[in-house]
Amino acid sequence: MWREKIVEADFTSRRSFAKDGCMGFAGLFSEMWEVHGLKPDDSTFVSLLKCCSSLKELKQIHGLVAKFGVAVDVVVSNALVDLYAKCLDVGSCWKVFESMDEKDTFIWSSVISGYTMNNRGEEAGHFFKDMCRQRVRPN
């Protein structure tokens, strides 16, 4: 049954996700794990994160990411940093960024951009200087 739901989800528009709520699909991922033993991976969570329509949904999905042990993945962490910034939650944006052991150009760019879009340009400048000190080349 879950396979049909996934195929159906591929054809569902983002508007439908926003209307019905993203957490229905989060339940699907829990079912995949608990019933079928299939663990969502980074691609699964990045896809799920794209349909977030609220900070509440974002935090719930972040909780699922932690539950399934994907939280330290660079791709998922980058999506979380970006979305927390877009939801005006720079505190959570910072926590995800800080939790990462290795930071690439993309994550640095996401946190700098996130702080900039939240009118925190001075802090964004500090991030840029820190990035350069870490010998990460801006692109």
From TrEMBL:
It comes from Flemingia macrophylla. Keywords: Repeat. This is Pentatricopeptide repeat-containing protein. The keyword Repeat applies. It comes from the Eukaryota. PPR repeats lie at residues 104-138. The keyword Repeat applies. NCBIfam families: PPR. The lineage of its organism: Eukaryota, Viridiplantae, Streptophyta, Embryophyta, Tracheophyta.
